[in-house]
Amino acid sequence: MSGRPAPAIVILGNGSLATARRIQQRYPDALIYGLAGRVDGADRSYQEFGATLRELYQQDTPIIALCAAGIVIRTLAPLLLEKGAEPPVLAVAEDGSAVVPLLGGLGGVNRLAREIAAALEVSPAITTSGELRFGTCLLNPPSGYALGDLELGKRFVSDLLSGETVRVEGAAPWLADAQLPQDLQARLAIHVGHAARQADANELLIYPRNVLVALTAGSAQAIRAALHEANIAVQSLACLLADESDMANPTLREAALELDVPLRFNPRSGSVLELGRSAVSAPLSEIAVNDSLAIVVAAEPLDPLLIGRPRGRLAVIGLGPGAAELMVPAVKAELARANDVLGYETYVRMAGPFRADQVLHCTDNREEMQRARHAFELAAQGRSVVVVSSGDPGVFAMAAAVLEALHESSDTHWHNVELEMLPGVSASLATAAQAGAPLGHDFCVMSLSDNLKPWSIIEKRLDLAAQADLALAFYNPISRSRPWQLGRALEIVAQHRTAETPVVLGRDIGRPGQTLRVTTLGQLTPDQVDMRTMVLIGSSTTCVFPRAGGGEWVYTPRWYGDKPGS
Ligand code: SAH
Question: Domain named Tetrapyrrole methylase: which ranges (predicted)?
Answer without folding.
Answer: 314-524
